[in-house]
Design goal:
The protein has 119 residues and is mostly helical. It has seven helices and no strands. It has a single domain, classed as Chromosomal Replication Initiator Protein Dnaa, Chain: A (Orthogonal Bundle). The protein is globular, with a radius of gyration of 14 Å.
Length: 119
C-alpha cells in the first residue's frame, strides 16, 4: 500500500504528503540558488560530476528538493541538468533514507524547505 501512496504523490501535483501540500510551480533554478547559498557553492560546483562528498551530498539534496517541490517530471529535469534520471532517483532515495536516521540531514532539508516556502 505504501508503494501506491508514493505513486499517487508523484502523479498528482499538490497532493498532501505527510500533512504538507506540495508547492506548485517552484522552479529548478530557484531551488538550485537556495541549495547553492545554503552550502556556499556555485551552480557549476553543485552540478559537477565529481564523487567527492562535498559535492555529492548537496547534489542529492538538490535532487530530493526538486522532486519534492518541482512539478516537472524527473526525466525532463535530468535532461536539463545533464544527468541520467536514475541518478536523480537514486539521490532522492539516499536522502529519504538518511533523513530517517540522520537528524543533521533531516534538519538541513527542513531548513531549506522553510527557505523555499518563504520565497
Amino acid at each position: 500500500m505504501k508503494c501506491l501512496d508514493d505513486m499517487n504523490y508523484m502523479a498528482i501535483p499538490g497532493l498532501q504528503r505527510n500533512g504538507q501540500v506540495r508547492k506548485i510551480g517552484q522552479t529548478t533554478s530557484q531551488i538550485m540558488d537556495i541549495v547553492c547559498n545554503y552550502y556556499d557553492m556555485t551552480a557549476d560546483e553543485l552540478l559537477r560530476k565529481k564523487r567527492h562528498r562535498v559535492y555529492v551530498r548537496p547534489r542529492q539534496q538538490f535532487f530530493y528538493l526538486c522532486w519534492f517541490f518541482d512539478t516537472e517530471p524527473l526525466l525532463k529535469l535530468s535532461e536539463k541538468l545533464g544527468y541520467n534520471h536514475a541518478t536523480m532517483i537514486w539521490g532522492r532515495k539516499v536522502v529519504m533514507n538518511e533523513m530517517s536516521y540522520n537528524r543533521l540531514i533531516k534538519n538541513q532539508i527542513n531548513e531549506m524547505v522553510e527557505i523555499i516556502r518563504q520565497t
